[in-house]
Write a structure and sequence with these properties.
alpha/beta, three-stranded antiparallel sheet, Arc Repressor Mutant, subunit A, 4 domains, flat, 19 helices, five-stranded mixed sheet, 464 residues, Conserved hypothetical protein from pyrococcus furiosus pfu- 392566-001, ParB domain
Length: 464
């Protein structure tokens, strides 16, 4: 403010002073304590205002003005400044940055407002005492549209790193909203990484397609068959993924394999050979045998999953009430943390509000021994009683049991990754897995480790 400050102070009636409509800080907060201080000690620092017709607008001192009005102060000392629109906004941004904590988004919108009024990035950076990159990052954040900001009530509290990542996908509101919802959770980096990978895959397939349609490619490019595994003319012979290599390396690999034709399928290149009737019959028999084996494995897994779930819940039913309260409190916290990192941002709170319809009601009834329709009434009572911990554990274990599907025992998905942690919590309570459960747990942990290893190797290749 020093570049604009006036040496002349004028006493102005508070009824004639208005907040500035372009004030970067949208929420001035509670001024009760400040008003009490002003009543006792008076206003120690004059306001800075600009004329607005017969009235005035605050440039510096919005909280002080609000506190004075709250305290019933009739007139306040003011510096009356003569500033143009850009100078007014620049002064308010500088004042807020020096005196009052703006959110990143408030600062970003204010900086964009200064640029809209004719300031340059270099001017703004110099005035704020910041780097050019600092200003440019906030300009990116300011570009985020209102519909994306409305995704969550606390959008203005997101960090500059999160805002810049969201702004990167300008014109793609679905992606921006997905990132905004995940910001502040462990899923944010995961979702961002997947979006970046999707973009790399799309760029890869577009480059490969451009090389394939080149006049000198020498490769037979055909439309993707509607029925890839039963087309009357073409037999599927493999595919090329982005991990195959660069687009140029992929083309060379296709030439080495010399398929009869290739087609573009999503982010993959399918390879085709001409169909042979005898080979087709053999292939059909092989596929039928493989499907029968998969069906048998699925049936066995379903039987195991059902037996395992029954055993766990029977143990919970028979043992929870005998566990010490401090252990249950600890277990509640650990189960809660396991739920908090759930992809559903509402966690088990959603389960409580829809308990009679879904989200674990049946499992809760098995563990607690009460009917699902009585669950909410029982919980409202018991969660306020000394035995709240045992009921909290029943809620959380029922929620996890509801989530676990037979297929989650074989793949490294969001639920499968929670099963080992869930078992560790149960074992800490005294639960003893069967040999069958231990074997399946070992297989699941191995699958998770393999998936993580593959992902790390792919990330390293992409970063090279």
């Amino acid at each position: 403010m020093s570049n604009y400050q006036s040496n002349q102070i004028k006493l102005i009636n508070t009824s004639l002073i208005d907040p500035h409509p372009d004030n970067p800080r949208k929420n001035i907060g509670d001024v009760t304590d400040l008003a009490a201080s002003i009543r006792t000690n008076g206003l120690l620092t004059p306001l800075s205002v600009v004329p607005n017709g017969s009235r005035y607008r605050v440039i510096a001192g919005h909280r002080r003005l609000a506190a004075c009005k709250y305290a019933g102060i009739v007139a306040v000392p003011c510096f009356v400044l003569q500033l143009g629109p850009l100078q007014q906004l620049e002064a308010m941004v500088t004042e807020n940055c020096q005196r009052e904590q703006l959110t990143v988004l408030e600062e970003a919108d204010a900086i964009q407002g200064m640029l809209d009024l004719g300031a340059t990035t270099a001017n703004v950076a110099h005035r704020l005492g910041r780097s050019g990159d600092y200003v440019r990052d906030r300009v990116k954040a300011a570009s985020i549209k209102t519909e994306v900001r409305a995704t969550r009530d606390d959008f203005s509290q997101l960090t500059i790193g999160q805002l810049v990542a969201i702004a990167r996908y300008d014109g793609q509101p679905d992606r921006q909203k997905k990132l905004a919802q995940a910001a502040g959770t462990s899923n944010f980096d995961y979702i961002l990484r997947n979006i970046e990978r999707d973009d790399r895959d799309r760029q890869w397939i577009e480059s490969v397609a451009a090389l394939l349609v080149g006049s000198d490619s020498g490769i037979n490019l055909i439309p993707d068959p509607e029925k890839p595994y039963s087309d009357p003319e073409w037999r599927y012979a493999g595919c090329m993924f982005p991990s195959t290599g660069t687009p140029e390396e992929t083309i060379e690999k296709i030439r080495e394999l010399n398929p009869a034709a290739v087609s573009i399928h999503m982010e993959q290149v399918y390879l085709w050979t001409r169909r042979d009737k005898t080979a087709d019959a053999e292939e059909e028999a092989r596929r039928a045998a493989e499907q029968a084996e998969r069906d048998a494995r699925r049936h066995a897994l379903e039987e195991y999953a059902a037996a395992s779930a029954d055993k766990r819940m029977a143990w919970l039913h028979g043992h929870l009430h005998g566990i010490k309260r401090d252990k249950l409190v600890e277990t509640t916290a650990r189960l809660g943390l396991l739920q908090i990192i759930d992809p559903d941002p509402q966690g088990y709170t959603l389960a409580l509000s829809t308990w009679n319809d879904k989200c674990g009601g049946e499992q809760f009834a098995t563990i607690s021994g009460i009917e699902p329709e009585r669950a909410l009434a029982e919980l409202r009572y018991h969660l306020d009683e000394p035995d709240w911990a045992v009921w909290a554990v029943q809620i959380l274990t029922a929620r996890i049991e509801w989530f676990i599907d037979p297929t989650d025992w074989t793949i490294a998905n969001d639920i499968g990754r929670r099963i080992p942690g869930y078992y560790q919590i149960l074992q800490d309570l005294g639960y003893t897995p069967t040999d069958d459960e231990t074997s399946h747990l070992d297989q699941l942990i191995a699958a998770i480790s393999e998936a993580d290893s593959d992902e790390n190797e792919e990330d390293e290749e992409n970063n090279q």
